[in-house]
Amino acid sequence: MARSRFLPDNFTLALLAVVALASLLPASGRVAQGFEIATTAAVALLFFLHGAKLSRQAIVAGLSHWRLHLVVVASTFVLFPLIGWALRPVLQPLVTPELYLGVIFLCVLPATVQSAIAFTAMARGNMPAAICSASGSTLLGIVITPLLVGLLMPGVPAAHGAAGMGGGGGHDTLANIGRITLQLFVPFVSGHLLRPWIAGFVQRHAPVLKFVDQGSILLVVYTAFSAAVIEGLWKEIPLPALAGLVFVSAVVLAIALTATTWISRRLGFSKEDEITIVFCGSKKSLASGVPMAKVLFASHAVGALVLPLMVFHQMQLMVCAVLAQRYARRGEVGEER
Q1: Angle, nearest 10°, between helix axes 299-328 and 114-122?
Q2: Which residues of 204-228 are buried (b: 16+ CB within 10 A; e: fewer)?
Q3: Rounded to whole angstroms, how far apart are CA atoms 86 and 151?
Q4: How far apart, in whole angstroms, are the C-alpha atoms of residue 260 and residue 181?
């Protein structure tokens, strides 16, 4: 019996199940460490397989796609901060002033890397450009995010010696670059170098690549949501403020998704490039945001500043999963540009 078109697809149902599982049975201690290792391995495998799949010509095309990269960077570090700043008089009364400062903080963060690229792959977008844009955004954020924090959040208590990213800023910068290199670029380059020997195997087993894409997202959702629940996501704020925060996050995400889609079409990008712009230009990184908050802000201020990012992170994964499925079905249902 065919599934009704009004019912969620299997992957969306799996995402909902993972969120429920993390809420009821969050991973902690050694179990959480195990899931972190599994997530890292899944993401590394994802990039290894994509490196093997992509031709040298496709990689060069991705690197040279400067118009797309400019749009993604502008969306991440210009559009988002403008959204947070312009809507502050309207949206801040729905939450607390401290929570809305967290909304401003998420708006100045770089784009997420793993899930943005995985969603682009699921939706059959421009993978080489996605890898370049998402990774480049993270590296740029190391410099741009602290500058925007100083401009838009001058009254937030700073960490001891946090001026200019704090006393450990140089170490954190090198650590971020090293983590990105080891987790993303090394597997990707390794897969690409082995392409002459394994490309045929990867092409014959394309469903494996789809499983890795979706599996890595499910792991990211469970580990991230588990951490949020353990940190008191459902206990530290009253229900009205939490409901207001969910609404504020939905408004920011909706504007970002709508704007990136409209801009990409207005500028005449292809459907594959539009997918890359939407998924790389509308997402914010929890993995980069939490360490940055710990470096930039006083310990007692970090909780309220990171909570909006946690909520937004879960929401963007859920919404983008649905969008990726719709984009992926465009050829099957005869969708036109």
Answers
A1: 10
A2: eeeeebeebbbbbbbbbbbbbbbbb
A3: 14
A4: 27
Residue 212's alpha-carbon distances to 8, 117, 284, 321, in angstroms, are 21, 12, 22, 14
Q: Are 335 and 323 in contact (CB under 8 A)?
A: no
CA 111 and chain centroid, separation: 6
Distances in Å between the Cα of 131 and the Cα atoms of 3, 277, 278, 286, 308 are 34, 11, 14, 18, 26
pLDDT of amino acid 211: 75
The neighbouring-strand residues paired with 128 are: none
In this structure, the dihedral spanned by the alpha carbons of residues 75, 78, 82 and 85, taken in order and rounded to 10 degrees, is 120
Report the pLDDT averaged over residues 245-262.
96
pLDDT (tens digit per residue) in 56-106: 766 666 677 889 999 999 999 999 999 999 999 999 899 988 889 999 999
DSSP-assigned letter for residue 65: -
Lowest mean pLDDT among 74-78, 183-187, 240-244, 246-250: 183-187
pLDDT 10s digits, 122-144: 898 998 888 888 878 877 887 78
**C-alpha 245, offset from chain centre:** 19
d(CA 225, CA 315): 11
Nearest to 227 by CA among 165, 306, 334: 306
